[in-house]
Fold this sequence. Notes:
- By secondary structure, this protein is mostly helical.
- The protein has helices at about 15-60, 65-75, 75-110, 120-125, 130-150, 155-160, 165-170, 175-185, 190-210, 215-235, and strands at about 1-5, 250, 255, 260.
- The protein has one domain (about 1-260).
- It contains 10 helices and 4 strands.
- A hairpin with a 6-residue loop joins strand 2 (about 250) and strand 3.
- The longest helix has about 50 residues, at about 15-60.
- The radius of gyration is 21 Å and the shape is globular.
- The two termini are about 15 Å apart.
Amino acid sequence: METNTSVNYRDFNISDIVSQAWELTKKHFPIFLLGIILLNTISYLPNMASDTMYLNSILENGTIMTQEEVIESLSPAELIGMLGGILLLSIVAALLYCYVFIAYNRMLYRTVHGEKPDLTAALKGAYKGYWPYVGTYLLVETIVIIGVCCCIIPGIYLSVRLMFAPYIKSVHPEKSLSECFSQSWEMTKDHFWDLFLLGIVAVLILFVGFLLCCVGILFTMVIYYFIFGVAYEQLAPSMPEEAVAEGTTTPATGEETVIVTES
Length: 263
């Protein structure tokens, strides 16, 4: 039996959440930094491909040109081929990003529960529930975009109320889409303004990291994700299916563990 002391299940408190996220970041920074670097590298792949094509065109023409001039120098077939290649790579990169992000979420979830983070194990198990997670994420994003188009405010409201749905799906792949949406909706029901302010605080922390010669953002990005991981755990105990339970399935391996909190 494992005693979880990493998260205190108290009333929702922003300063307490940020404090716990800070402590978790200091303790586990290297492995979560590795995950951040991996995610950022994947997201930059389409840009790398575009830059490579641009440089190749300059070398072939033997003169320095702007990107607009390079595009104008291409034949229609070459342009279609280049755009098609970038589009295909963008899709592959997006799908790969989702896979790694599932692993990152599951590693974060287990770390918040007091377990030792293991990126390798999380990556090996990320295929479980992969496509349902992608579907959940795309559906949430679509709903939020529609809300933003409706005078912005509905989009902000929906983004807060549904913010945990993709996370729930990633760490609990056994749950249905409707369960993830309804749980996120219920969890955020009485905490809209708390979570809205928490989001502002998290973004400000990212901004501070960016000001520290840009390198600091690598540290604050880890804090950013821990903030919402801890926030989820502070709200989850009020949910029947998320109550501190016996035989909880660990998301990365499917093994049965027992998590008990100290009162």
